[in-house]
Amino acid sequence: MPSLPRERRCSSWPGCRARPAPAASQRRIAAETARLDGLAQLPQQTAASLREQGVFSRLWVDTLENLVGVVEALGSGVFRGAVTDAEQRLRGKGNIFQLNDTADLFVAAGYTDLRTVIDGQRWQRLIEFWATRHVFTHNDGLVDDKFLNKVPSSTTRVGQRLTITEEHCRQAITDTDALCRALGALITP
């Protein structure tokens, strides 16, 4: 029988709680980097044509959406795997992907506050990336009050189109990697 990752191997055994796979989050983050690297390798003429069609912008938005998904999956898995009454604590809360809510859940369960583990500037950038993802996912790239509340230093106004760049995505990848490592470290002895 082929060897399965621990989180798949024991999930069917009674009493065995599936463990999150920080390594899986690292692979997904690496895939986002590889996708951006692949775009950078396109011939100039091809890249210019794709840029004009909005392909790059769409891929950059997808990158942010995927990074939020990585953190949501890892955060949920870590919390459910480490906190014995996780289901009770999560009841009525929906998905775990708002950063401050995630940090608060871990603190309430007796774990280190992620906001003290992650550098303050990095944490603020992560909040901005999550707010940017919200604008593109729920408002077609148009700034709303929720974005401005999360990113008070923004010079954009409600209704203005938000822009995203490759550099923005690469920073989001770096910061998300640090967050995932911090999440994984919460349960590492």
TrEMBL record:
- For bias kind Basic and acidic residues, which ranges apply? 1-10
The record's region (Disordered) falls at 1-24
Tree of life domain: Bacteria
Q: What is this protein called?
A: RiboL-PSP-HEPN domain-containing protein
Could you tell me which species this protein originates from? Answer: Paractinoplanes toevensis
What are the leading ranks of the lineage?
Bacteria, Bacillati, Actinomycetota, Actinomycetes, Micromonosporales
